[in-house]
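Researcher: Re-running this chain for the archive, since the previous output was lost when a drive failed. Same request as before.
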Amino acid sequence: MIVLGVGRVVAALASNRKPGEIAAAVAFAFILGLMPGGNPLWFGLLALTFFLKLNLGIELLLIPLFSLAVAGFDPYIDQFGYFILTHHVLYPVFTTWYNTALIPLTGYNDTLVAGGLVLGVLAWPVMYSLSRFMVTAYRKHLHERIAHHPAVKAFMKIPLVGKLTNAGRRLYSVGSRFR
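Model: Regenerated structure tokens:
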């Protein structure tokens, strides 16, 4: 399972997809990784990404990784969310939102949700630019070196890996016929 996930990420990085699609997936995964999962706002943002042109495989793979990486920063995100929710300038806005019909159901008034959402939105341009640069640099400088490395060639000669690779290629060719 892990081999297939890593293989899909490497295939996506090396594919002819636009680097912006992969970068958007990384940036949205970072936003969702900063927010606690399970609240309606998190599910709403995840559902929104299904309608955007980005690499869903990379996004779905990175969400749990970012969530694990950010878990140690939860107290700081919580403090930031508390600062935002109790700031005197924003207090009337949040009061109005809370008295609106459906907005309180999103769970925005949780300090972790508010802090994670605002930090994620602020970090989105940085994450997008950084990951787009990294995808372009990978394609330009690293992909060929990794593909022709003796360890990768030896790994590809393992019978199970070869069968999985061939099955993946066949599935990809079937899927590309329907696009």
